Amino acid sequence: MTIYDISQKAGVSIATVSRVLNGSDKVSAKTRKKVLDVMERYSYTPNAFARGLGLNTSHTVGILCADSSDLYLAKAVYYLEQMLRDKGYDCILCCCGYNLENKIKYSNLLLSKKVDSIVFVGSNFVEANEESNSYIRDIACTHPVMILNADYAAPNVYSCLCDDYHAVLEATEELISSGRKNIIYIYNSTSYSGSKKLTGYMDAMNTHGLTAVTEFIDRRYEVSDEILDTAKTLEGLCSSGTKVDAVVCADDQLALGAVKFARRAGLSIPQDIAIIGYNNSMLAVSNEPELTSVDNRLELLCKQLVNNLIEILSGAEIPRKTIYSGLLVKRGTT
Fold first, then answer.
1. Suppose 39 and one of 44, 156, 192, 234 were both cysteines; which one would form an S-S bond, judging by CB atoms 3.0 to 4.6 Å apart?
2. pLDDT (tens digit, 9 = 90+) per residue, 184-207?
3. Backbone angles phi and psi of 278, in degrees to 5
4. Is the whole-model pTM more than 0.85?
């Protein structure tokens, strides 16, 4: 029996079971008796190391990310570690890559360190195949699971994310309203977030009866590879007769590749070609002209995630999902 099983059989939330186990006075006598009766019926004994119960807390949080060289993930880890430290929590970081076997392996490693919770940084942890997400559900039976920038509906799993779908849809709509018709979308991920962005672009183009052109760039370990690959991809499209007057990119490094393409082709930015990136990273202001980019509110998302986690560990009930809108920051490429 797990805390999840007890909550199901008693018809209450996991947080309520936690409060009963911790002797909180925020539970009614009727609810407390219902939970205790279920525990007695099934001879349930709580694991003293089950961090999701708030017992014997180590004040340590496990953070799992795929790739610490990724600008978005690295910045997220920085924010989370700093904010958790301010709350009195230490962090253990594991970089697991994109392979499911390694995700499971390093999740188990963090659990063996008696962490209070695990934070999954990035949308690549939520797989399209439901069976591949079973390890997340297993962890959530004993530990609160926090996911940054992806949504996964399961008990004791909480998400903080940007509305990537509407952010890209509105960015594409902005280009269309300015008279652009030949808009190409460049992306490098089919993760939860990546799929939402792609759908936003496709829906905007289809709504206006425009031809959607998408190009996938294989993810590399070096930012410079993606920049060059994007430039070469756009050069190949133009050589084959594809018209382009705007490019929307799934992140800022891809957008820099579009800038490189424009310069090689002798195109004026933004007169001949407009370019929009995503993440509003430091790359957006390191370029000349500076990139128009979608700000996905990363710092705010991290702050909300940490606040939510502290509330959960204290026994409070919070919304399962928190969503923020992206903001289009206009600069010199549009």
1. 44
2. 999 999 999 999 999 999 999 999
3. -150, 140
4. no
